[in-house]
């Protein structure tokens, strides 16, 4: 009888531990949202790997600029403009991707998405959110406008240790 109780206790403890581990990225996303809403950049900084986010934004922006050049039929002026934009964008990204800059950017981004719903008198954010694991140590949050789901921003979190998650990538549309 005592063995059954011990066995049940061990199994229950293992299940509870696995549930906490599985829920940890959702808690990190919730904590990030609260830090952004409360405009507390110092708390948001605990959930962001700034060098990785800077590099991901640079890659995303450069890919968008290159795609724009390909669409403009190899126009020499478009190529020059894209090169100039890349040269200017990289230092701007370095300057903006700070705890204060990300807090401000994410708050104003939410306000921009919310513009249409506030015109209708609705105060809720007019966007769809989806959160899911994209690997054992990776978690994605995708935010897309309800009016155009093809345009979305993807936030990728990565596990650091057992329960800690940090934002490592922002992919722009």
Structural write-up:
By secondary structure, the chain is α+β, with helices and mostly antiparallel strands. It has one domain. 60% of the residues lie in helices and 21% in strands. Strands 1-2-3-4 form a four-stranded antiparallel beta sheet. Strand 3 (148-160) and strand 4 (164-171) form a beta hairpin. The chain is elongated. The termini are far apart.
Beta-strand residue fraction: 15-25%
Radius of gyration: 21 Å
SS class: alpha+beta
Shape: elongated
Question: Main sheet?
Answer: 4 strands, antiparallel
Domain count = 1
Strand order of the largest sheet: 1-2-3-4
User: H/E order of the elements?
Assistant: HHHHHEEEE
Low-confidence stretches: 116-124
Number of helical runs?
5
* Residue-averaged pLDDT: 82
Q: Work out the number of β strands.
A: 4
Task: Give the distance, in angstroms, between the N- and C-terminal Cα atoms.
Answer: 60 Å
Helical residue percent?
55-70%
Q: Which characteristics define this entry?
A:
173 residues; alpha+beta
Write the layout of secondary structure elements.
Elements: H1 2-37, H2 41-44, H3 50-71, H4 76-96, H5 99-119, E1 127-133, E2 138-145, E3 148-160, E4 164-171
Antiparallel strand pairs: 1-2, 2-3, 3-4
In a nutshell, what does this entry contain?
The chain has 173 residues and is of the alpha+beta class. The protein has five helices and four strands. A hairpin with a 3-residue loop joins strand 3 (148-160) and strand 4 (164-171).
